[in-house]
Structure formats: C-alpha cells, structure tokens
Amino acid sequence: MATPARLIPLLEQFDWACERLGNRMAGPVVDSGNGTDVEAPPMTDEEYLWEPVPDCWSVRRRTSGPGPRATALAGTGDWGRDTAAFPHPSPPPFTTIAWRLSHLTELLALRADHSAGSHSLTRDDFRVEGGVNGALAAFGTAAAAWRTALLGADDTALDTVGYSTYPHGSDPEDPFIDIVWWVNQELLHHGAEIALLRDLYRGRNI
Q: What is the pLDDT of residues 149-180, one digit of tens each?
C-alpha cells in the first residue's frame, strides 16, 4: 500500500525524533541538529532514576509503594510508575527521566494496539522498566509498533474519527491524522525534556 502523501512528512518527523532521542539516551553520539556529532555518554541506571528535586514522581519497586502525592503505581511487573487518580496533584509533580520515558513508551505501545492491534491493552498491561537498558529496548519496540500502525493507514483511515480507540486521549473523537500529529508532538515534547534532564545531570556537580 502506498503511503498517503500527507502522512510522509509526519513519518519523517517521527523517525528523526525517535533516532535523535534514542541516540541522546544510548549514545555514544547524537546529531546536534546540524549534522555534527556531539558526545552522548550512555545513560546509567543512576541517571535514569535521578531525582533532581524533592518529591519527584518516578518509577519505583512495587514493594516500595508510590512516591509523594502519588496514590498508586501504574503498569505491571516488579516496577510501577507514580500516578494518582483524577484530579491530579496541582502543581504537577516534577518527573524523572524514568517517569517521562515510561509514559512516552506506554503512550506509543497502547496507541499502536488501539490503532492496529487488539484494541484492548490497558495501562495495567504495560510493563514498567526499572533499569535504563530495559526502558530503551521497550521504547524501541513501542516506537516500531506505532510506526507499523501508521504504515497500515490509508487516506480513509487518516480521516476516520475514532480509528484509534486509545481511551486516555481524544482519539475516539478525532480523525486519525490529528492523533498522528499529536503523538509526534508528545515525542518531541518529552524528548526535549529528557535531553534537558541529561544536561542537568551532567552539570550537577560542576
């Protein structure tokens, strides 16, 4: 199936953002934005879980229970991600790289399933990773699943309201092309946050 012309730039943006974020986290270099390689030391577990301010939300061992102002640990497995039922705490808690990457990976994995999979996965099915290597692998798998879902969408699908049945956003009310745009925005948004946290971690003792 030919890729719809209006999807191509969004796919290219998604691919570039995934590559840049992946390299920014895993190293050893990342494109500075102008084609120049900049050193990017591979992230460690310590950095992945680093809490730069008090009362951060993060991912935690279930045996430890949720963090400050959180009421539950989302996901499945030995680790969970801090969360709270609506209405969420205000102001929002500061979140670690681990929390942000887990959130982004869950978003990609669940939207892929609710667009081109079983349409049944929930946040309780998402495995939260307590270490950086597992988290990076999970991000790559989720990004690939979302990209596959996009490649299966023709022009009719892009215009279909509710093509994605992901229950934690506007997906059931919006055309799929709008959801594709929104996912790119989330990737760019959280990718930039993760990059900044890496810079702050590197400079914390300077």
A: 999 999 999 999 999 999 999 999 999 999 99
59, 106 in Cβ contact below 8 A? Answer: no
- Cα(106)–Cα(21) distance, integer angstroms: 16
Q: For 122-140, how does the pLDDT look when each residue is reduced to its tens digit (9 = 90+)? A: 999 999 999 999 999 999 9
41: left (phi over 0), alpha (psi -120 to 50) or beta: beta
What is the distance between the alpha carbons of residues 174 and 110, in angstroms, rounded to a whole number?
17
Give every CB contact of residue 81 below 8 A, 6+ residues apart in sequence. Answer: 57, 58, 59, 73, 74, 75, 98, 99, 102, 103, 106, 128
CATH class of segment(s) 5-32+41-48+98-202: mainly alpha
- Residue 73 DSSP SS3: strand
Residue 16, CB half-sphere, CA atoms under 13 Å: how many? 13
Alpha-helical runs (H) found in 45-175 = 45-48, 97-116, 132-151, 155-159
Q: What is the domain partition of the chain in residue ranges?
A: 5-32+41-48+98-202
